Hints:
alpha/beta; Rossmann fold; seven-stranded parallel beta sheet
Amino acid sequence: MADVSLSLRERTSxxxxxxxxxxxxxxSTLTQNGSDVVFIANKADAHQRVAQHLNDQREVNEKYGRCxxxxxxxxxxxxxxxxxxxxxxxxxxxxIYIDALGISTPAPFRNESSIEIFEELLQKxxxxxxxxxxxxxxxxxxxxxxxxxxxxxxxxHSGFAMDSVHSLVRGGLSSFTRSFSKEIxxxxxxxxxIATGLTEDYLLSHFTECKSIKEALEQMKKIDSSARLMNPxxxxxxxxxxxxxxxxxxxxxTLRIKI
Length: 259
């Protein structure tokens, strides 16, 4: 039986960023606990297929939330505002914003193309986060129970030597979370960051020559014998807790989910 204290019924969650095993698990967990979910992304074909699957599940259990997916150019500040407005219009409100814009492709600082990589990541992984968060606040201030969660890659895990530029761009969200949480505390909104451990998507993007997750993990273990894959369900359940009434006392924190 579902824990009523974790219920997200009559709440709308917005998830921004590319479709990954992580974001799929988050959307599934949130809808199973009653939240309506809106995906927004630069390319949303895959998101729309997942949304349809989640809506099919709702046909079996009417207590599940609904899901939609929309394609927007999130590199454009004005479009970011439109995207959040569309999400609010779709289900009547926005209560939860989950920023999964981080793309864990290799981005070493010493690479000759690091300047170009930096400019691209700055736009897609930081500026877009700023503009989307700014748009979300206009809706959360009327709800008095808002939640914002940023997902970043844990710089402590073994593959991060290849991601210096990514760390520079995305890592600052931890500091931002601490100050931002205080700034909107009067709105009864919480802001937290989750640093994720090794994911399947991360491994495959770093070891492109590997044909399977198992093979990619073996390559990672040559770098660090203790490397382990993070269970995306553990991450999704942590987000569920933070977004529920039980998570109202946690704000300004960076939580690390490693397994």
